[in-house]
Write the structure tokens for this entry.
Amino acid sequence: MKIAIIGAGNLGLSIAKGLIVNNAFTTLYLTRRKAEDIADYEEYSKVTVTSDNLKAVQNSDILIFAVQPTQFERILDEIKDELTEKHVLISTVTGFKIPRMEAIVGEEQFIIRSMPNTAIAVGKSMTCLCSNEKGQKRIAIAEAIFNRLGTSIIIPENKMQAATVICASGIAFWMRLIRATTQGAVQLGFDAKDAHELSMQTCLGAASLLIESGKHPEEEIDKVTTPRGCTIEGLNEMEHNGLSSSLIKGIQASFKKINTISEQ
Ligand SMILES: NC(=O)c1ccc[n+]([C@@H]2O[C@H](COP(=O)([O-])OP(=O)(O)OC[C@H]3O[C@@H](n4cnc5c(N)ncnc54)[C@H](OP(=O)(O)O)[C@@H]3O)[C@@H](O)[C@H]2O)c1
């Protein structure tokens, strides 16, 4: 695959690192205006760093756009005349809908939208994908790329906002839960470093149990809640104080907000 990442900033470079580690390209172009800031990537074989987006587009088939929403329209405008039927456009740009892309580059282009999260930096991103009608024929390419950087699923575009809340904002929600259990562990007598380790690893273990067994969370909860025991005592106290309810309400508030932002 001849890939270009247009906008090699935080996300673009995380994707680039994943592609480099997995040796997942024939050639890789990385662009940004201050190309000198990422010049060291040229040390990798088959990687070209440039500030010339047109050159990157001309020499690549898969174009991954990882620029800020305010920069995207101008960049699509800049490169649109270089697009041919070989190009697959994969956008990571938050909130920039497919019809808006089609209005600039045309409906006949293969267009895919992706919503990764920051865990892409460690190859553990939950990435949601959708495409225009034409792009359905090439969405497997995007799946192959993002499956090397975590896990991906295909969803309809009208669920992209909800996916942003659950997966992108979701990273912050889970971080706060890890912090809260760390604080609890410190109160039980662990020093901060050990408390943090216990909390993180238990979180990872819980998620891994579900991923590997395919079981429902309540099945795993049943295994650790002895009747009249300490786990059910703690769990019920958390629920009396609104644990599940506050998480669901927080998710709804986030969703309401993202819809307000997208209307602005
Ligand atoms: N970070 C995440 O985890 C995440 C997750 C999901 C979606 N997203 C979305 O991904 C996009 C990128 O996010 P980010 O955090 O990676 O932003 P970022 O760090 O600001 O990266 C954007 C990059 O685009 C480059 N750029 C700007 N204008 C350009 C141009 N004309 N040609 C080529 N490159 C140009 C900038 O470098 P120069 O200034 O040197 O040009 C910068 O390095 C955003 O739309 C964001 O909403 C991010």
In short: The two ends are 37 Å apart (CA to CA).
